[in-house]
Design brief:
The structure is a single chain. The protein has a single domain (about 50-170), classed as 3-Layer(aba) Sandwich (Hypothetical Protein Ychn, Chain: A), CATH 3.40.1260. By secondary structure, the protein is α/β, with parallel strands linked by helices. Strands 4-3-2-1-5 form a 5-stranded parallel β-sheet. The protein starts with a helix and ends with a strand. It contains 6 helices and 5 strands, in the order ααβαβαβαβαβ.
């Protein structure tokens, strides 16, 4: 397993804990047990509903982004993630993986772009691409898909979100 795959595994585990906490809180209020394998005490000791999450990741292929978005979609559709009770998970992209979110690449990456647009519209994710990376690769912000935001400096934005807006890495 590569370093990247281990990192993604940790990201998914943390995300599942976040989603499980939301579901556990909802289920404890209605006495319904629809989360299996996560005790209420364990989930509550790690996360609360007010927490916000940041995924500052670099991926290497459209398939990897599709995999992450597919997992988020499954959690949303199963009811384990509630967009109304949480801030969207911010995805900061600042590498070549961001190329797939440019309009010129739509035909080659339709499934990824469509799913990203859907999850953004449902307030599950908020995708931002680093403006420094865009300019450094002779690309233009106007060519991004309309649902994709821009962070002037992804590293500085990550630091700001963590220090000023109480986001946590997952």
């Amino acid at each position: 397993m590569s370093v990247y795959q281990r990192f993604l595994s940790k990201v998914f585990v943390s995300f599942f804990m976040f989603v499980s906490t939301i579901a556990t809180a909802e289920s404890s209020a209605s006495n319904a047990n629809f989360i299996q394998g996560v005790s209420e005490v364990t989930a509550k000791s790690h996360l609360t509903l007010e927490e916000k999450y940041l995924a500052d990741i670099t991926i290497h292929s459209p398939q990897e982004l599709l995999d992450i978005l597919t997992r988020a979609n499954m959690l949303f559709e199963s009811g384990q993630y509630s967009a109304k009770d949480s801030s969207p998970i911010i995805f900061l992209l600042h590498g070549d993986e961001a190329r797939i979110l440019f309009k010129q690449q739509y035909a080659n990456n339709k499934a990824v772009v469509d799913l990203a647009a859907k999850l953004t519209a449902l307030n599950v994710v908020d995708i931002k691409v680093c403006d420094i990376w865009i300019n450094g690769n002779n690309l233009f912000v106007k060519d991004l898909q309309p649902f994709v935001g821009v962070a002037n400096n992804a590293v500085a934005e990550a630091e700001r979100l963590v220090s000023q807006e109480n986001y946590q890495y997952f």
